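Annotators were shown the component list below and the corresponding predicted structure, then asked to write short factual statements about the assembly.
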Amino acid sequence: MDISDVHKGTKLMIDNVPYNVEEAEFMKPGKGSAIYRFKLRNLVDGSNLNRTYRSSEKFTGANVSTREGQFLYRDGNHFIFMSTDNYEQYSIDETLLGEKSHFLKEGTIVTTVMLEEKPLDITLPIFVELKVMKSDIATKTDTVTAQMKSATLETGHEIDVPNFIKEGDYIKVDTRTGSYVERVVTKK
Amino acid sequence: MVEDERQRLAHLSINLQRRALIYNTTRDFFNKRGFLEVETPVRSPAIAPEKEIIPIGSEGWFLSTSPELYMKRLLAAGYDKIYQFSRCFRKGERGRYHNPEFTLLEWYRTDADYEQMTKDTEGLVTTIAGKLGMGTTLRYRGKKIDLRPPWLRLTISEAFKKSAGWDPVAEPVAQRFDEDTILKVIPDLNPNRPTVLMDYPAPMASLARLKPDRKDVAERAEVFIGGLELANAYSELTDRQEQKKRFLEEARQIEQEQNRTAPMPEKFLAVMSNLPECAGIALGMDRLVMLFCDAASIDEVIPFTTDEA
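Structure shown to annotators:
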């Protein structure tokens, strides 16, 4: 496509990587040639990129869409999801998920970013509730201040939790930061 | 959608009222100085061939990109001071400071040069500021701009040597010139004073006359306020042969590189031998209104941009 067809929200392939145009600035001297300044978000790893282009530049659009899916189970390095629309199963490699895999448990609903028909990435719910499988018992002195200790979650991931958290508790975790939020009382 | 549009337009109300006041003040300004307001075609069979200004076609003709050639045909017929508000169209020009359909204010004087046009602009802008009760200080995007004339004047050579480290008069490379104008020179202008950049490289002023003592420099001036390119003035070229040569070269490049037709504006060329010494200027009215409304985007001063049309 021509650069003049690129707008905020357009999805482009640049060096074989899909990007979302977060901001597009058109600049042109009255009598001169135009320059476009794009703020781009890498749809694979979420990183940002600023690029300046001339008006003669041509782009290939990225055929990117999203679909809702439910996490079913893990099979080695593959995470298996099921589309909530058509119940088709699809798998995403652990390396593409990165740290997001730490917070996936059976039944979690995620938004999957698809490049053509290939799953590329997922967006997790901001908060997930996970069971503490293993945590050391805090020593008495530790309980005086708000000290943290390590706990292993049902996904196998370790995070820091307050000392009062016991094995078998459910806790709420912020998936954006990967940190403990609060203990979930009602869920057993 | 109905409610969204009502709210959007209600929000623009103050700016649109101010826009009308600026138009009225502008008409007063020129009428008092003996200028005649004119109107010329928006749709015509040929326009000035300019590589970086792409016209929108209309059944084999073109929508106006500037009324310049018609204004000069009036001057060639004996009119000496004329102005007009003119709807212009430039394909693909859309951004914070651009809408593909916009309004140029153009005015022309015989027996005048680009310096006179710059002085007229100083007079017009300060008159509007006074009428709006701003005195001589414009507040735009958090900056205080001192409008008192004379405005800063810098030659293109001076501005480029200071901000971009090279001299485009010595090396007139168009692409690099345009990029550095936007990315280096404009951001480096004094934010608190209007600035006039003048004396452009000869190849970058296709309708301007060259300086009498400098064959590499054209008498072209551009006015910048608050980082916005507001107006472009020429001491007009009156040499028919030279004009035809420049148009043919520009048209050749357009046809070869861009695969679009660029017919010669023959009726203009035919009367050019009667064109007296004169100067003209084109000022972006939407941007002038933006400055006086402290608007970050042209969308705040036009009720229906191309996206809302």
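Statements collected:
1. The CA atoms of residues 179 and 185 of chain B lie 9 Å apart.
2. The longest strand of chain B covers residues 214-225.
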